[in-house]
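Hi there, hope your week has been kind to you so far. Would you mind checking whether the tokens look sensible for this chain? I owe you a coffee for this, so here goes:
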Amino acid sequence: MRKSLQLSLASVFAALHAVLYFISFGLWRNWGIYLESIEGIILGPKVGFMAALIGSSIARMIKPDDFWMFGIIAEPISVLVAGLLAKTKWKPVLGLYVITLSAYFIHPFGQSLPLWTILDVIIAFFLIYPAAKFRGNLLELNFKHLPIKLVLISFVCIATDSLIRIFLLIPCGLYTLFTYFSTFEGLYGIFVEAAVASYIEDLIVVIVSFVMGVPLMVSVRKFKLLEGKNQKER
């Protein structure tokens, strides 16, 4: 990818990331999460991370909310994970999951909250290697295998978004910043409610990736926008 094209795409995705945040309504996260996997795959881990960081930061500077710090950290990391998996790099992602999940289960709250509330994250943990290694680099595999690879990466990506938010909330202690999390009972109720919404969002992300991501990736590959030496170096 030419540097000029790379910069243009990064700017477009950063703007899209911000716009989707502004028009969000419905579930507990924002519509920017539906862009994360495609953002990482097309831009690569490094450029994708920066585009998501810029987009999420600008959005929350213009329209701040109580949970602004969660999105600014979770969204870029999720894009980074998608970019790594698309390039078959699974070890850094596995390391991220081991550290964050271990911290969660070591914390007293992590031992007390229902296990079913993070089942999607646990499933994603076991899908990291298959998502990365299935038929090799996403930009080079056979078209008939593209939907499977894209869905696997998208699921791990959205689960990573949840995992980082959980890691910040509980092991990192950000729950202490909010009065409605002042007691374990208050945290329990909101955590369980958010988990149900999270599973719905997981399904939406997978559907969006299949319906919109597959045609987009087919077009990108058809015009060879991401092929060549520079793509491998991103």
